[in-house]
Predict the 3D structure of the following.
Amino acid sequence: MIGQIDGVWVTFLRDERGVVEERTLVEYPDERSAVTEFMSQLQNVARLKELEALLDKGLEPHD
């Protein structure tokens, strides 16, 4: 998630209960930096899920 706490832009992860996970709160100097990092994290998660799906099927990635 992306948010602003006391005027500081932050990114953080929440668990399935909605609780902020330890050590995931990161501060950024501006909104653009926070959004850029958040989008990068989303892309990494999507790639990880694709690789897990391939491994579950017993296939090797070709990229």
Remarks:
- The beta strands are 2-5, 8-11, 26-28.
- The first strand starts at residue 2 and ends at 5.
